[in-house]
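Progress against Task 2.4 (sequence-to-structure conversion) is shown through the following example record, which the project officer requested during the mid-term review.
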Amino acid sequence: MPAPLLILFCLVNLVIGSGAFVVSPLLALIAQDLGVGVPAAGQAMTAYALSTAVLAPLALVATARWPRRRVMLAALALFAAGNAVCALAPGLSVLLLGRVLMGVGAVFVPVAAGIAVTLVEPARRGQALAFVFLGMSLSYVVSLPLGAWLGFRYGWRVPIIGATGLAVLAGLAILWRVPRDAAAPAGGFAGLGALLRRAELQRVLATTLAYFTAIFCVFSYIGPVLQALTPMSSGQMSITLMLFGCSGVAGTLLGGAANDRWGPQRALWVQMLALAATMALLPLTAGHWPALMAVLLVWGTAGFGMMAPQQSRLAALAPAQAPMLFSFNSSMLYFGTAAGAAIGGGAAPLLGFARLPWVGFVAAAAALLLLLSSALFDPPSRR
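Structure tokens generated for the chain above:
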């Protein structure tokens, strides 16, 4: 496995994840500075999610004939420009424009994944993809706490300026280390319509949608959920979330290893059953922090572990369209994020935050049913 290039992709994804999510703990500061409410400032996350879900696949199609390195450089230039616009934003509308540019720049992620699967033999595809996506998991553990500390100490624009600089450095590293002729399936409109009509592909993408809807029914409100279950100090909350992030890093690596050892279908069965179980059990841990922490660690491991097996399923379905399918999978992830936040927000006033995981359980059960339908109806080579 060509480790230096995969390490580089992992680090660039760390930069992208950091820039994308660092605003979430700073929304109150952003709202106060721009003179808007916190819910309005929260649309910065929505703008990024929708841009990544809708515009990034279109950007991938538009650049189908470009060399892959040029696409990656253009993506990082857009991502850096979007961060700079956000850092200098005088008002909410300019901030949202910057977040949209960042979302288009996130097209780097499926392009890097497409190159990664061409660098290794199929038997090691899961580990390669897991390593590339590890950077996203690490952003929760490293960059979010650091960005929050910088933002609260020096102002919310400082960590965003830092993310801008890191994106520029990432572009220079890609220019230096990625060969001009780096190969990967480019993706385009040719054959895409017929591919999207295939039932097995629709089931894979719908599984991602249901899975992330389940996760973000709860994770979008993780602070209120944890406080409703077991009231804790800010220090204990930070430790809880840090350990949860560490379990996500472990889950990313374990998901790739499980994919290569047992195949994506078996790996996903374990992860989805674990996710459904944690959704069912989490409300029962009320008042017991050790039990709460044990369930959260399983949730984090299972929740972050499914990306490599899902990407492997997509690559096996249509190797020539792998980056485009990876981009569609990311779109389902972000649509699931938005759907989960909306469903959780509607259910919380009715059920209370402590019971919100039971709403997530319903979506997790839907993901399990979709996985079961794949096992029943798809040929073994396409599962």
